Amino acid sequence: MPLRLDIKKKLSTRSDRVKSVDIHPTEPWILASLYDGNVYIWNYETQNMVKSFEVSPNQPVRTAKFVARKQWIVTGSDDTFIRVYNYNTMEKIKSIEAHGDYIRCIVVHPTQPYILSSSDDMSIKLWDWERGWNCVQIFEGHSHYVMSIALNPKDTNVFATASLDKSIKVWGLNSPNPHFTLEGHERGVNSVEYFSGGEKPYLVSGADDKLVKVWDYQSKTCVQTLEGHSNNVSVVCFHPELPLILSGSEDGTIKLWHSSTYRLEKTLNYGMGHVWSLNFLRGSNFIGLGYDDGTVVLKIGKNKPPVSMDQGGKVIYAKHNEIRISNLKTTLESDVQDGEKLSLQSKDLGNCEVFPQKLQHDSKGRFVSVCGDGEYIIYTALAWRNKSFGNALEFVWAEDSGSYAVRESSSRVKVFKNFKETHSFKPSFSAEGIFGGSLLAVRSNSFVCFYDWETTDIIRKIEVTPKNIFWSENGEYFAIATESSTFILRYNKETVQKFIESGQPIEEEGIEDAFEVVHEIEERVNSACWVGDCFIYINRNSKLNYCVGTEVVTISHLEKHMYLLGYLPQSGRLYLSDKNMNIVSYTLHISVINFQTSVLRGDMDNAEKLLPKIPQDQLNSIAHFLESQGLKEKALEISTDLDHKFELAIQLENLVVAHEIAVKSDSEPKFKHLGDLALNRGDIDLAETCYIKAEDLAGLLLLYSSSGNVAGMQRLEQMASEKGQTNISFICNLVTPNNLQKCLASLCDAGDFAEAAFMARTYVPSMVPEMVAKWKKALEATSVKAAEAISNPIDYPNLFPDYDNAIRAEKYFEALRSHLKSASEYNSQTQTADSNPIDQVKQVPEQQYNKVVSSLQSLTLNNNVSFSSKKSVQNDIDLLSTLNFSGQNSPPLVDVTDPIVPAVVSPVKSSPPSQQPIPSSPQPQRNSPPTATTTTTNNIQSPPKSFTADEDEDIPLDGGEDNTDDFSFTSTPTTSTTVNTKANLLIDDDEEEDDDTKLVDI
């Protein structure tokens, strides 16, 4: 039977004639040297050119090789030079005039700092780059061009050469003379290569006589001659992994020959002209080809190694036709780290009569099947004795070890039990593959059908094309891995059994309720296994995951492509292997899997019993799993990660636990988060504690201002000042009693003298002269005229009507703020939204006014006065209240229609400019004293609800009727939209024709 060859083209590029190719050992690169003197590096995964080198224009580069350990490429061309380049920087490292004629071949020694070169000058030279690229040996003996060199992989001090003198010579690095010569070709020999396997001392050669010859270099005889090419054979090699000999010819074909039977397995022709070069990457399935018209990279065979592990930890694998065994139990007592390569001893079991492409234990580990070369053989696992054999393209075991099935062809499937054939059936479609397990699955190009092992009756047809099918040990679940995703299904065995017992005929689509879709994993699975009801897999991105129910958990990110061997409960570890049989392991506790399975099934009692068996370091993963299942209370109880535990407590609104965790971790973000939650839940004390710990001044401002906590605001002001948060400090001073002077100081410290002057005029009239003086001084640095135009109430009292009454009102409200009533009395107070403090003060007799202010001040200084004294003062306050005063936070102390008051405070909607009253302002003469300009209105404005002094901070002002209103504080004064307000700012305008002094709006 022919070999089942899986051949995929990974790269095909068009270029000038390619004389040689080489594959990089670690990067997905192929190096191509061209007849036009260029060298290209292609990425065969992305199909893109990585680098290009112009080596010898119009002079063929006949050979080029990677030196990966030095990041070099070495080239040989017809100009007789060897050149060395760094393929990362593209810098030329060295240029050597190496031979007296065309350089045909270069080979890099795998361990020593050597390269070998051959030439049309009939010599071979050995170069040492650590000795300054000196030629340390010259090998002479051929009588014609030396076309090819090959190092012996078993002894790298030995190499062979092929020459157009019709001979093959074998040399040693330490001797200039050949050890022996092989002769047999009738014409010049173009290529020679060693067999890389360990069991055959063979060479293969190709020549201009159109023949391929296999040589035994120990007996120095020709073992086999392969005929089939119709033109000169340019290149030959042994496949590094498969039992294949590859030969390329000028007839444009690549022929694949079986290295044991020497049967021609396949002929490839890509229509790209003569084949000039062929190269392989040792330890892989990649083959590079150089043609007249470009470069091709092929992948022949699969990377997955022929290996199988039984439930006891015995690993059987094949190395070519040799079968070896290792026992993982020898590593159980050693301290193994996750991902660490295991040091295993192996022994020979024997040889296999066919080339193993797949090894597979039965469910009990008693037998091992080997499938390859179109045949199968069943061996006993321990003694490796042949138990049964036959023809098969594929072989699969049933769930019970006594049954198995083979696919003889695309039209015939046979079922065996106890090594005897029980059924043979021909599917109604082309059978492209079979899969074992609880049911026998047969795949077509577009669907898969599941059959009963005993009767071969169809159970269900599914419209997917699986790459593989994985069954759980109990046969309840299975996974269908497709090209793009994986489906987890449940097999309803009892439903199927009842349907069959009912005697109903099974339709072409099978039994509808046989399967139930549990979950879809949107990933391509390369290899997988089941542990209980847990599906463990490696995806195409080399990520090791497991899936329980619908929850996918990542175990590890693998550094390279690995394949799952299985799981050992004794060690609690998963075992993986790469294509070179390097085995590693990862921890997976069965107690964790069983716990998660119990939770998914709703069996919380069993889960509670399993919980004490779970290792401490796995509790956090269990907590995350419980959280994903909505069991947050249990997750909070189990989790040991403070961050995760805190998040769970927040989600559950468990303030006590969250506070304990925040105290333990002493984390400001945690206190901030908890403070917000506590405030939302109405726990003001906890919110305050958390905001203080988190130093969240904005949160404290909200808390204290909302609750009327004067002492808290005072503490907050001190904290804000220490931390340089002037906005919050300003707001604290603004809303707490008798701290307006500090607000003015803050504005002055920030250089906002204009804002300070306007604020003083509105709230602290007695401070206006000082603020105006500072404003003028600051303004003088930029505009002396503008500074001189600003009026001061001391210098121009005529421009500030009722200024004295404003100061009287200021004193009253200053005293009143120290004797505030409770917020609970708000509704019983006379509303003063339309009050005008200036008019009210005018109506109060001086004697009565002084008495009230003095009484309020005495109460402020002495809180232990008698009840009768307090009653007397209250009567005086009530008298003022009849004049529309209020015992609440003070409004601005001037009418907003006063021309000096900044018109930035009205919350009323703006009216169109055409509807605003236009004041009539007299035009004073130059150098005359400033004259007040007043807008008369019959309506008394309500106290301002906002003030402009900072950029984006929303703050309450100390004024207005309702101290619960919201206010804004920005840095630029704005013009009132409800009244026409002007400041007495007089500026000389030299450019005006009438040379008048103008009144400028603010």
Please, could you describe this protein's structure?
Residues 863-871 and 881-1002 have low confidence and may be disordered. Helices cover 22% and strands 33% of the residues. With 1002 residues, it is of the alpha+beta class. Among the domains are: 7-300, Methylamine Dehydrogenase, Chain H, CATH 2.130.10.10; 309-391, no CATH class; 741-844 and 883-988, no CATH class. Helix 2 packs antiparallel against helix 3 (604-610), helix 13 (740-749) runs antiparallel to helix 14 (753-763) and helix 17 crosses helix 18. Strands 1-28-27-26 form a 4-stranded antiparallel beta sheet, with no helix packed on it. It has a 4-stranded antiparallel beta sheet with strand order 2-3-4-5, with no helix packed on it. Strands 6-7-8-9 form a 4-stranded antiparallel beta sheet, with no helix packed on it. It has 20 helices and 59 strands. Residues 320-578 form the COPA/B second beta-propeller domain. WD repeats lie at residues 11-52, 96-128, 139-181, 182-225, 226-267.
What is the makeup of the main sheet?
Answer: 4 strands, antiparallel
**Range of helix content:** 10-25%
CATH domain class of the domain at 7-300: Mainly Beta
Average pLDDT level: 82
Number of helical runs? 20
Broad shape: elongated
Query: Which CATH architecture of the domain at 7-300 is right?
Result: 7 Propeller
Summarize the structure.
This protein is of the alpha+beta class. The protein has 20 helices and 59 strands. Among the domains are: 294 residues, Methylamine Dehydrogenase, Chain H, CATH 2.130.10.10; 83 residues, no CATH class; 210 residues, no CATH class.
